[in-house]
Amino acid sequence: MAGGDPSRGQHSGPFRTRLTELFGIDHPILGGGLMWLSQPRYVAALVNAGCMGFITPRSFEDRPAFEAALRQCALLTEGRPFGVNLTLSGRSAGNDAVLDWLDAALRCGVRHFETAGRGPGELIRRIHDGGGIVLHKASSIRHALAAERDGADAVALVGMEEGGHPGLNELPSMLLGALAQDRVRVPIAIGGGIGHGRQIAALLAQGLDGAVIGSRFLVSEEVEAHPAYKRHLVECDEHATVAVLRSLGNTWRVLRNATAEQVAALERDGARDYAAYGDLLDGRNTRDRCYREGQWQHGMVSLGPSIAFARRVEPLAEIVATLLAEAVACFDSLDHRIRVKS
Ligand SMILES: Cc1cc2nc3c(=O)[nH]c(=O)nc-3n(C[C@H](O)[C@H](O)[C@H](O)COP(=O)(O)O)c2cc1C
């Protein structure tokens, strides 16, 4: 079923890079895995729009539920390849489960993987043993280089602007991308803060291979979340997020809501272990109260400032089309705006 063959035949799209070749996709855009929200409808929408998406196994109750999601996604993409995100957790036990999810995904025919977290070496080896390809997402060039040495086929560098967990990195995506090109040999995608096609044009113009996008896509119709939460997203500007929990070594960039304010206050007051935060950090609160009930003031709701580019809830394919049109327009206008002296 899903994705035994990474080649989708003829490439069609304005931009062809090492990443589109590697993933067999039309556009150099990856929809990064989204905890709770990378469900089959959303991931299939990404794939059907010519991008790559990744189902997040941690979002499912158990292996059968995850496998059912894989089967549903394969139906929705009509057999086109889609991916799975394997996030290694820094703090909990539970990384044993990652190998089990990999096994389930490979058995279902998935061959495209996004990994994240520390020490992906064994995971990368097992993905390759199963015939898969892997992009490892890192928040520092040091970790990207380690993943490259471990055999990653591509890396994504995510800046401190990214929604979710940008690690302890304090550097922005633009700087990481420019620095990485002199050091990393495999294809490089850049994530964090990307929500407009002109940013995609900028990274392609530098010779980078693609973009990883999460926050900008949250207002897609295909993201299965409450309309009240999406309505709030549309109203957010670039100051709507906050990065907390750096003091625990696990920075988390989230929507600035009541829960985030409580967490920030506890952190300011000296809370220095997870227990001190009670159940404020429990992702099931986010799932139940924000995503299911629309009470966006509650739960730690991963989000980055690129949400400021989202102006309406719309089909994912339209967001992708807009990003591409903006990127193309940016290249087209270069000749008019910049005179290069010979
Ligand atoms: C709601 C949400 C959930 C996320 N969950 C995960 C996850 O489970 N695993 C992961 O590797 N990255 C996760 N991320 C990070 C994204 O995959 C992606 O790297 C990031 O969103 C890119 O930056 P941007 O938000 O500025 O577009 C999440 C991001 C968001 C916004």
From TrEMBL:
> Molecular function terms in GO for this entry?
nitronate monooxygenase activity
Q: At the top level of its lineage, which domain of life is listed? A: Bacteria
Gene3D superfamilies attached here? Aldolase class I (3.20.20.70)
Entry annotated with the keyword Oxidoreductase: yes
Instruction: Enumerate the InterPro entries for this protein.
Output: Aldolase_TIM, NMO
- Keywords from the UniProt entry: Flavoprotein, FMN, Monooxygenase, Oxidoreductase
State what protein this is by name: Nitronate monooxygenase
**Which organism's genome codes for this protein?**
Cupriavidus cauae
